[in-house]
Specification:
The structure holds 2 protein chains of 2 kinds.
Chain A (H helix, E strand, L loop, with lengths): L8 E9 L5 E10 L4 E5 L6 H9 L6 E6 L2 E2 L10 E4 L11 H11 L4 H14 L15 H13 L5 E5 L7 H18 L2 E6 L2 H7 L2 E6 L2 E6 L1 H6 L4 H6 L4 E11 L2 E6 L4 E6 L8 E6 L5 E2 L7 E12 L3 E8 L2 E9 L12 E6 L4 E4 L2
Parallel strand pairs in A: 3-8, 3-9, 6-7, 7-8, 13-20
Antiparallel strand pairs in A: 1-2, 1-4, 4-5, 9-10, 11-12, 11-14, 12-13, 14-20, 15-19, 16-17, 16-19, 17-18
Helix pairs in contact in A: 2-3, 2-4, 3-4
Chain B lengths: L12 H41 L4 H6 L1 H7 L10 H16 L3 H11 L3 H11 L9 H8 L6 H10 L6 H6 L2 E3 L5 E3 L7 H32 L2 H12 L6 H12 L4 H8 L15 H25 L3 H9 L4 H12 L1 H16 L3 H6 L7 H10 L4 H25 L9
Antiparallel strand pairs in B: 1-2
Helix pairs in contact in B: 1-20, 3-4, 5-6, 10-11, 10-14, 10-17, 14-17, 15-16, 17-20, 19-20
Classes of the chains: A alpha+beta, B mainly alpha.
């Protein structure tokens, strides 16, 4: 990404409060690089939408400054920011046809008729809606409306496009295909996208980087891969993907390894991420797919568990076991390993490496 | 031709479906029945009776039926012959005996002024008539007006079973006895002025209501519920007060020695001698009607505005439209349904408004409805009153028709 700014959008110490009592966004520092697809991910009320609205100009930061392409934009009204936006419920103008909806941002910019038509045709082609020019929004399906909304946000060639849970109202299959479509549009155009969602699958599939929000703060900002594999705290670990946890106390802390004693008195060898000294309480996080069943090789952690529940999921089977007093320990077993015979009540040996087992904050 | 579809027990699907649906339809009808009967008996039938009364003259035709029949032969170019006068004499005598001559006197007086005294005087002297003598001469002896052919023409015309002359009067026209239709003398013209004034006031009040209601409704639709409820109560407060009380309080406010004038004088804005004439003229009618009809504009506007998602305006501004442009191109067009529903409601209500103009309007601020009331209560010319009411009804129907053409009645939303 040479020649592209790494701080195309910059949040600097931004606070936001609606009622003067509580901060919805706390001291936000965030750099968004030019051309990247950045997702703000978090549960509802975590401040992600407020952050997006401040960037769009519909909310004013209570404190701090936002820069867009090097310029402070706190005092620039939304219509002068030149930022495209896709809204949660599409916000298509119901009294205008698809063509007129797309022409709106162009007419506002006083672009001549021939070019308007050309740009609209090009954009509609991109979202595969050629031929729908004269339809009214109410005559379109949810997915088509969503595409029109995306096309409308892109048709005036903004440098930055904001998307506020644009796929939230679609059904699962459509949502997945739209995810790929949006990703391809982003790759083709190279436009910077800031995307808000509470759906972690969506975030992992589409983004270059993900900022996980909770409690008005960015908990972790990294690529989807790292976010899943190396969460830095227990909120991120539990929010992204499935997660088995144990709580315990750190007994011994050496470089790269910690001995953690669980409430049942067992010792787990873990990878110390957010613990700094012996005696600290810690929450241990372990992804279900990182657990081996009846491991044959040498492995640091090996315990016996009892199968409590088996749920068939098509491509894999989820097995709930009781392990070290944790009754909700989940295993994901690929259905290809058909040699494995699992029955309710069976005892199995489970093992995992200390690298995959992360000792996080309590 | 599609094949007949049958249910699994062999019945025709369409028949079976009708059977199943019948119960539901019956229930629906029974639920609507009270309202239906009410509308038919309290609304449709009275309206048709009213429309009938504006052209109905059957009673006169019955009272003087023979005279009327005989008069059909008379061409009206010269004084009627003895066949007419004698028939009229005997019929009038019969009416006097039954004490019904007063009724025909009033009716005939609408056709030609002076008939009341003419009939009354003649009635007193009927017994002095010599039944073998010339009736016309004796009539003229009784009262010289009988020598004027127009009274006989009025008698002929006034005994038709049906006539449409009241509709001419409604628009300040009259039919001469030679059948030509002319405007009445300028000094007597009043109805057209009132019609125009009524339409002007109705349109003006509608416009004022729109100007006042639009911002309020918008505010109502965007405020958080607890504030919007409070504001809604303020808007609806007038609904909970009697119309008469509200109009009277406007009288207290607007009169020359009233609250508003007193305040202006004490603030030195208006001199004591120059107190504003806010009442007993159009100004008073305008102010009071606008206030009273305001909720009818606010409610439809509010209900439409409530359905416009705020994200539309945000979307428009995010695309580079100034707030004003976003309002004009997006928000305003989306409120058309509310504007038209509110406008038609206020316009139709004000076109027939009665109490307020009667109390605060004075002579210069009265509307057509006050004229109708005058004819119902004072002049007792019910035919004219109902003819005017019928014209009013048609005017309203035309407004609805136009509304349906332009907006479509299905788009109407009323709160």
């Amino acid at each position: 990404m040479s020649g592209k700014k790494s701080d195309f959008v910059k949040f600097e110490q931004v606070d936001k409060s609606y009622d003067g009592k509580e901060l919805v966004v706390k001291g936000l520092d965030l750099d968004i690089a030019e051309g990247e697809f950045l997702t703000l991910l978090g549960p509802s009320g975590s401040g992600k939408t407020t952050t997006l609205m401040m960037l769009a100009g519909f909310e004013t930061p209570t404190n701090g400054e936002i820069y867009f392409d090097g310029n402070p934009i706190n005092n620039i009204p939304p219509h002068k920011r030149g930022i495209g936006m896709v809204f949660q419920n599409y916000a298509l103008f119901p009294h205008l046809s698809v063509f007129e909806n797309l022409a709106f941002p162009l007419k506002v910019r006083k672009i001549d008729k021939a070019e308007i038509e050309e740009r609209i045709n090009k954009t509609l082609k991109m979202v595969s809606l050629t031929g729908f020019e004269n339809r009214m929004p109410a005559q379109l399906s949810g997915g088509q409306q969503q595409r029109v909304a995306v096309a409308r946000a892109l048709v005036f060639d903004p440098k930055l496009v904001l998307m506020d849970e644009p796929l939230g109202a679609l059904d699962k299959n459509l949502r997945e295909s739209m995810q790929y479509e949006l990703k391809h549009i982003h790759e083709t155009l190279g436009v910077t996208v800031v995307y808000v969602t509470h759906d972690q699958g969506e975030a992992l599939t589409m983004s270059n980087r993900i900022a996980v929000f909770n409690d008005g703060k960015v908990q972790q900002l990294s690529g989807p891969n790292e976010l899943y594999e190396t969460p830095v705290n227990s909120f991120v670990a539990s929010f992204i993907g499935e997660n088995n946890t144990f709580t315990g106390t750190v007994k011994e802390l050496a470089s790269g390894a910690a001995k953690v004693e669980t409430s049942t008195g067992e010792i787990i060898m873990a990878n110390p991420i957010a613990v700094s000294s012996a005696g600290e309480k810690s929450r241990i996080s372990l992804r279900p797919e990182r657990v081996n069943i009846n491991p044959t090789e040498q492995i640091e952690n090996r315990f016996e568990a009892e199968i409590k529940e088996i749920i068939y999921h098509g491509d894999h089977t989820r097995v709930r076991v009781n392990l070290l007093g944790n009754d909700d320990f989940i295993l994901k077993v690929p259905n290809a390993s058909s040699n494995l015979k699992l029955n309710l009540g069976d005892k199995v040996n489970l093992g995992w490496s200390s690298q995959d087992c992360r000792a996080l904050d309590y | 031709m599609s094949a007949e579809i049958r249910t699994s027990d062999g019945e025709l699907l369409s028949v079976k479906l009708r059977k199943v649906e019948r119960r539901r339809r019956t229930t629906a009808f029974l639920l609507a029945a009270p309202l239906l009967f009410f509308i038919v008996f309290a609304y449709v039938i009275p309206i048709f009776q009213m429309l009938g009364r504006s052209v109905d003259n059957v009673q006169m035709n019955e009272f003087l039926g023979n005279t009327h029949n005989v008069m059909q032969e008379w061409d009206g170019t010269e004084m009627p012959g003895e066949d007419v006068t004698s028939t009229f004499f005997y019929e009038l005598k019969g009416l006097v005996a039954e004490k019904n001559h007063g009724k025909i006197a009033t009716r005939l007086n609408y056709e030609k002024g002076g008939f009341t005294s003419l009939i009354k005087k003649t009635a007193r002297k009927l017994n002095d008539f010599d039944e073998n003598g010339n009736f016309l001469d004796q009539f003229i002896d009784t009262h010289k007006k009988w020598g004027d052919i127009e009274y006989w023409l009025a008698l002929k015309r006034g005994t038709d079973a049906y006539h449409f002359r009241k509709y001419l009067t409604t628009f300040d026209y009259e039919q001469k006895f030679d059948g030509s239709i002319e405007r009445i003398p300028e000094k007597k013209r009043i109805n057209v002025t009132l019609w125009l004034r009524t339409i002007f006031v109705a349109a003006g009040v509608t416009f004022c209501c729109f100007l006042l209601a639009y911002p309020i409704s918008h505010l109502l639709s965007v405020l958080p519920t607890r504030y919007s409820n409070l504001l809604m109560i303020c808007v609806l407060l007038p609904f909970w007060t009697s119309l008469l009380v509200r109009t009277s309080s406007w009288m207290v406010l607007l009169q020359k020695q009233g609250v508003l004038n007193d305040t202006l004088v004490s603030l030195g804005i208006v001199a004591d001698e120059g107190r504003l004439e806010l009442m007993y003229n159009m100004t008073g009618t305008f102010i009071a009607m606008t206030q009273i009809l305001l909720p009818f504009m606010v409610l439809p506007l509010y209900s439409v505005m409530k359905t416009i998602p705020p994200s539309l305006m945000r979307a428009a501004t995010s695309m580079g439209a100034t707030p004003f442009l976003a309002f004009r191109k997006i928000y305003f067009p989306l409120t058309y349904a509310g504007i038209s529903a509110g406008s038609i409601l206020v316009f139709v209500l004000s076109i027939g408004y009665y109490i307020t103009p009667a109390l605060v309007g004075g002579a210069k601020g009265t509307l057509i409805s006050n004229r109708i009331a005058y004819h119902m209560q004072q002049s007792l010319d019910w035919s004219l009153a109902t003819a005017m009411a019928a014209v009013l009804l048609v005017a309203v129907l035309i407004v609805y028709w136009l509304y349906n053409k332009i907006v479509g009645i299905d788009n109407m939303r009323l709160g």
